[in-house]
Amino acid sequence: MTVLRVGMCPGLSHDLINALQSAGIRTVEHLVSTNIEELAQKCSFSYKIIFQALMAVRRVLLAQHTAFPVFGLDLYEELLCSTAILSTGNPSLDKLLDSGLYTGEITELSGGPGSGKTQVCFGVAVNISCRLKHGVLYIDTSGGMSAGRLLQMVQAQIPGAAEQMAALQRIHVYKALDAFSLLACLQEWRAAGLQLMSAGSSVKAVLVDSLSALFSHLVGGRQSNAGMSMMMQVAGELKLLSKDFGVAVLVTNHVTRDSSGVLKSGLGHSWSHVPHNRVLLQKVERPGSHTCLRVAELTKSSRQPCHLQEELDISYSKNLNPENQPVTS
Amino acid sequence: MLRTVASSSLAPSVKAKLIRAGFCSVADLQELRPGQLSKEVGVSQEEAAEILKTLHTDALPVNDGGLVARGVTALELLQREQAQGSIVTFCSALDSALGGGVPVGKTMEVCGPPGVGKTQLCIQLAVDVQIPMCFGGLKGQSLYIDTEGSFMVERVVDVARAAVEHCSLLAEDAEQQKAMKEFTVEKILSCLFLMRCHDYVKLLAQSYLLPSFLSEHPEVRLIVIDSIAYPFRRDFEDFSHRTRLLNALAQHLNQLATQHNVAIVLTNQMTTKVWNGQSKMVPALGESWGHAAAQRLILYWEGARRLAVLSKSSRPDGGHCCHTRSLWSAHTPTP
Predict the structure, then answer these.
(1) What is the model's pTM?
(2) ipTM
(3) Mean per-residue pLDDT for B147-163?
(4) How far apart (Å, rounded) are the C-alpha atoms in residues B25 and B82?
(5) What sign results for the dihedral spanned by CA atoms A298, A216, A223, B44?
(6) Minimal C-alpha gap between B191 and chain A (Å)
């Protein structure tokens, strides 16, 4: 439903637009779907206008606004060149996610309070910044960001102070405290092409912690249409961001219990179709166990069988990934 | 700019009219004037002017105090965090577990059974935030929102007197002695604002008036809500409605803490959960409320002693990222 505007393509002048509007043609869809000859008769255009202006305009608009099909083989070749797999810094989590976070995909991490979602996000950010030396965009919605904790994790991986500061400078933190500002942030990035801030290092991951803090009170009520539509717009923006710019997106979510008492991720049924991979984190209930252990279960994945479980250590106090190799395909 | 009309902060009916008229993105509307817009969309001219103004302010780059802050690198954030202070609790074990005290700019929840000392801790914090800067305090004011009626001025006077005595014993150089002249019990009481809310509607309304209160009193560094559980636990039949209200309130409080640089301390009660034939005490207000505060301190009794567990925290605290235990003596320390 794009409105016809002057300057959209050469030949679309003010007079032509006015004439089309008086015939009831206001948008691009109308123009390309009407019969040109009928239109010419209705507006009593001259022969010259029809075949020079209108046909040319129609061709240009079609070229600008159509989607073109791609061969599967070309798509596969493109994927092989452009997808990267980013290790999360935690070998058990990497095993669960089939070596790590894939760029172009959205991964969701859900868990109850204190289950370690923010710690895992910190671990991913620190690993990508220190090991892989790429930029990370971190959106904090609930005030859980602690730069001191990031420093602790960076210090466990890199010895020198100068490299530690450089690693911290590759992590960019944004605060989005309501749904509109989150959407504004994502749309601005898409417009700016993600070539912001980081001098030299490209951004490879976008982390949103947590999405449910913004949307859990907007969806699920009697009048939740506006909230649901905002959530789906955010989902669309995240998908576009991940595909167009080749970044991996990690979001966190809370959990609820359904009527039989089983834990499931929050934000409802509509959101559950959005992420490509979903991991559920839970505290380990064994008495006497190390307090930094968690159990991660894979509840949705495009590559691995579901319901795989792994035990994770979220203390990040020592170098968990001794092999210093980024995995790219 | 790729801002879409659907993502702007206009009312849904207005958005529907704009989309029906064919406007998809904000860029479509930029060249229009109110008269043209009102004709095309079918709204009055004042409404059209309002729409254009809202979209224009949405598109402006907002500074740090606004809704979308310009991003900062983690290094700058670290420098800011190190410059910010925290509010001591005068219990050294608790302070070291919290990383120096209650952090400013974040929300903290204190849960515990009745009588364990949540209100006492809150009163102590409301006095401690006013300690002058030369003693390591924040010299800020505090706001106490009382929903249960458990606020007692006599107790505040006791705690204030003890704090003044403690600081006067510590005063060594001229600057500290000068600060002690102003740090008196009367001054402490005059910098403590009290609001009483007896039901959840009043509490929600008060929370929406807080931004203007904080702008008028920029020295406020601590807001205590004691307790947040009490107004929400009675007269609520629809639990999903309660959860949504609580989540909205939690996000609003987080926004306040970040934008106005205040510490927010909430008090919660405990409830019994029956699970698999066993019962245990868990914080009230449901599981999703657990995500509200950035830190959660649970106080409990063990025999005649009070113990504290930091069950949710993101601050570095000596290598443990999850649980610490600390002793808190039976009487609130009044040195």
Answers:
(1) 0.84
(2) 0.82
(3) 90
(4) 42
(5) negative
(6) 27
